[in-house]
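ESCALATION

Customer reports they have been waiting on this structure for their group meeting. Please prioritize. Original submission:
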Amino acid sequence: MSLKTEAFQYLKNAKNAKLVTANSEGAPDIRTVGGYSADDQAIYILTNENTNKVAQIRENDKVLVFAENEGQIIPDFVNFTFYGRASLLSGEEYRTAEALIKERRPQLDFSRPGTAIIKVEPHTIKKLDFSADEKITFS
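Update from on-call: job pushed to the front of the queue and completed.
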């Protein structure tokens, strides 16, 4: 299985993920997201168009999505970091992403005014795996 396939599968099965954007001063803003899904190319995150994360993405589309399952114990500890660019969806692409998110989280309400979906297209994926044979040591 390729790293990309493994990473997206891990993300799809995770309880939640973290979305990191940059504020107007360039400092990172991190928040937990549960209303999300993914296909094999992108991550889709449900939000409201009046949130700080949407304003920040409009100003700087470079984002990070981090997935890590809770309760892991070393040496079986794994997480994935997706570095990419974010955009807001509309039209058919919005409806396709909405269906993916509803499949993963059917209890979410898409009828509220201002509902928006962020699309993150990763260009780099990193995996941290403490069970890997090759270790990196920091001193």
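Sent to customer with the following note: Residues 135-139 have pLDDT under 50 and may be disordered.
Escalation resolved.
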